[in-house]
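Milestone M4 deliverable, item 7.
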Amino acid sequence: METACISKRKAVVTEMKTLFRPLCLALLLCLTSVPAAFASEGGAHAIVSATLPAWSIIPFVGMLLSIAICPLVKPHWWEKNMLAVAIGWSLVFLVPFAAAYGMGEALFRLLESVLIDYVPFIVLLFGLFVVAGGIAVKGTLAGTPKINALLLLIGTVLASWVGTTGAAMLMIRPVIKANAWRQKKVHVIVFFIFLVANMGGCLTPLGDPPLFMGFQRGVPFTWTFHLLPILLFNMVILFLVFFFLDSHLYKKELAAGRSPQDNQPAEKEPIRVEGAHNIVFIALIIVGVVANGVLPKEFAFFANGAGIPVYDEIVFPYATVVEIILILLAAYLSLKTTKTETRQLNEFTYAPIAEVAKLFIGIFITMIPALIFLKTHGAELGLSEPWQMFWATGALSSFLDNTPTYLVFLQTAGALGATQGIATSVGTVSQLMLEAISAGAVFMGANTYIGNAPNFMVKSIAEENKIKMPSFFGYMGWSCAILIPTFILDMIIFFW
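Output delivered:
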């Protein structure tokens, strides 16, 4: 028994090393001392914005194509080398960029992306993943159309209050367990990504990072409830489609001789929750996230971007430090206080979050030029109507990080000169325009696996449980067939 425990501990340590390796590599690159001679000059950032060539986005396109194609062509090779691919494409961008604009400017852009964006992003995902993985639902769950719809509904409602990542990690394993008896269940996971990992997070700033960024820039906390009619409309459509499809496939399962009672105990086990104390740690994570937005407004020590000077103009905010400490504390306490058996019930491993960490370090670095272009030329796109903002924000949020995309278009909308609407730090934005930007950023993250981080995590967990998920383009086939028509209706009814 003791030997087995030691082996398990070693396995956990190995997994943790795998998880944090890409982060450590990035931080090593970022924090290595640089001679002052390499520091960027004051106007260098503006020069980059004005002169950066369009072909600089090729590494980003290469990164996306690698994610889409490599798992299809060489799946085993991809599993072992995805981090190397991510670093490789990052260097394809960074080396020519450094040659053109100097080591100082390259370091500045790398630090800005990794420290300010990637680190808080992956720490939040890690915290929610670990804590949610300590909550297990026991009992007899039969994957019938009604039960599946109920589980999706619970997850969709939870997403606005514990974040799309938190809700996805809480609910994905019960959904997989309930449908373990079924042969055709990919559609359940796909609709789970649509609803729980994306759309459900639109009602509060806690639901999805773009909305929280809006809250930090003056959008009232409760304003996001204006998206409720759009959410309800989309839920009616998606749940009707899901229930029809699930019922059809359910009947086929029964006709083939399979039943919800397969592999179930003779006596139904009552449904109960183990590890429920982890809800306290989820609350602690939420406190950390909210504190990051509230502390600069309430305390002078945290105001005006006060923080740890890193390099050039980059400062790591004290408020973000507080957030990270609280999140990691929550994760640590969860690991220490949750029974091993509870995590075993969830078949908990670090593989899904490790995959996200590896891939997104490459995505965050290679998308630097794309975001520079968007920030520089966003106001020149001629987007003056809500429906235009809805599609522009959504289309880019399908492939880029939706938080900076949201902020760029929020800034663009604030410059349109609206006299009535929501007063933000970037100007007054009409309510309908803000609804369009918010809905596009949150809803259309479901269009691709990389549109929102929980998408990849859900996919990875499903594949760990022997569910053959669609390829990158295969998943887009689902989203184009189901989501795009829904979004067209959204445009006609709400934003035209």
